[in-house]
Amino acid sequence: PPSTIPAPPERIPPGVLAARDYERLAEQCIPADRLAYIAGGSGEDWTARANSAAFGRWSIVPRVLRDLRTGHTRVRIAGEVWAQPIGLAPVAFQKLVHPRGERETARAAAATHSPLLLSTLATTPLEEVAGLLSPEAGQPRPWLQLYLQPRREDTLALLRRAEAAGYGAIVLTLDASIQLASHRALRAGFRMPADCVPAHGSIGVPASALPAGASRIFQGAMAQSARHEDLAWLRGATTLPVWVKGVLDPADARALADAGCAGIVVSNHGGRTVDGVAPSLSLLPAVREAIGSHVPLLFDGGIRSGADVFKALALGANAVLVGRLQLYALAAAGALGVAHLLQLLGEELQACMAVAGCASVADIGPDRLLAVPDFN
Ligand code: FNR
User: Which residues are listed for glyoxylate binding in this entry (predicted)?
Assistant: First the structure.
């Protein structure tokens, strides 16, 4: 069978009333084996499910008689103004769900002035994506998510390309040294189609060349994974601000902020590393507390609605990123779907802000949330 799937019609699918509906539609828009790969986490998907379920622990506390006539969702993140505190997470291999892949996502980012983080494993060259965004028209510059390449010269080449193409930041992903497959994807027989190839880089060296008896994990994946000195090297090797993604531990976050990282993305990679990892939201307040109020902090993992966005902001994030929802909307209606998703998330967030009496994102604090007592 052809591995490229046909483009969906560019119209908002009937029945999409809320951002979450794009997840419900995914079964109709994405072949079952590909959906298993995308939706699945690691192992039995416990962490992936827990990421979303964690939002159910919190409820929103309303206010009345507040003057919200000047209300808005704009945020300033590391010097750039975003129309709403919602960006597109780096998600690899977008041609799995749309023949034009990341180009469509970039068109949606341009139309909605949303930040886009391009994966190292994108199926579209980073220059092409940058060419679809106009910072001079007020659209945020794209950021490049980086996997350190096995050879430093290859990482340097990527950095030079990102700098030349006008990227605004490098986001180094630290949590993907170990990525155990989703059992759901294995059972569905998912294999990456031969023509779905990354446009620029790899995720690391395959551990196939290890001597007999060596540990695939420790002498393989972990021997190649980044250490603090690699981060220091990276910061010295580029003129761009360096963020780090995939941090959950408060002490790690503190050390990274102290080391001069431009910002931190609290994330567990959508539950795709090892099953049993803590839900991303559960550690967000402790990370915020550890780094103080001034270090920029993005959050991802399990966001499916504007209420989820509100809760993440209340628990300490400056903005959030969406991963899977982005692919579901891309599969359903291309650029229009992704733009529509971002608009729905923004409107749902505005409704939560209105009911909670928050005129700006800065007003959304932990006092707007109440823990649901019987949550389990
Ligand atoms: C990802 N994610 C990811 N992260 C990253 O830093 N580089 C990458 O290339 C990818 N690729 C990728 C592919 C797919 C199919 C998924 C689902 C996820 C993780 C992503 O950036 C983000 O952390 C999570 O997706 C957030 O969780 P939600 O929004 O999907 O629940």
Answer: 37, 147, 269, 272
Among 272, 280, 325, 338, which is best to mutate for testing ligand 1, by the most ligand atoms less than 8 A from CB?
A: 272
Would residue 330 count as lying in a domain? yes
What is the extent of the structural domain holding 140? 21-206+214-371
Span from the CA of 95 to the centroid of ligand 1 (angstroms): 15
Q: Residue 289: name the closest of 260, 257, 321 by CA.
A: 257
ipTM: 0.99
Sheet with 263-266, strands from edge to edge, namely 86-88, 319-322, 297-300, 263-266, 242-247, 170-173, 143-146, 117-118
The whole-angstrom separation of Cα 29 and Cα 191 is 18
Please report whether residue 376 resides in a domain. Answer: no
The answer as to whether 134 is a domain residue is yes
pLDDT in 10s for each residue of the chain, 376 residues: 457 899 999 899 999 999 999 999 999 999 999 999 999 999 999 999 999 999 999 999 999 999 999 999 999 999 899 999 999 999 999 999 999 999 999 999 999 999 999 999 999 999 999 999 999 999 999 999 999 998 999 999 999 999 999 999 999 999 998 999 999 999 999 999 988 999 998 887 666 667 788 888 888 888 788 899 999 999 999 999 999 999 999 999 999 999 999 999 999 999 999 999 999 999 999 999 999 999 999 999 999 999 999 999 999 999 999 999 999 999 999 999 999 999 999 999 999 999 999 999 999 999 999 999 876 6
Residue 97 located in a structural domain: yes
Q: What's the angle, vertex CA 297, arms to CA 172 and CA 163, rounded to 5?
A: 40
Establish whether 269 is a catalytic residue. yes
Q: Give me the number of domains the chain comprises.
A: 1
Q: Are strands 263-266 and 75-77 parallel, antiparallel or unpaired?
A: unpaired
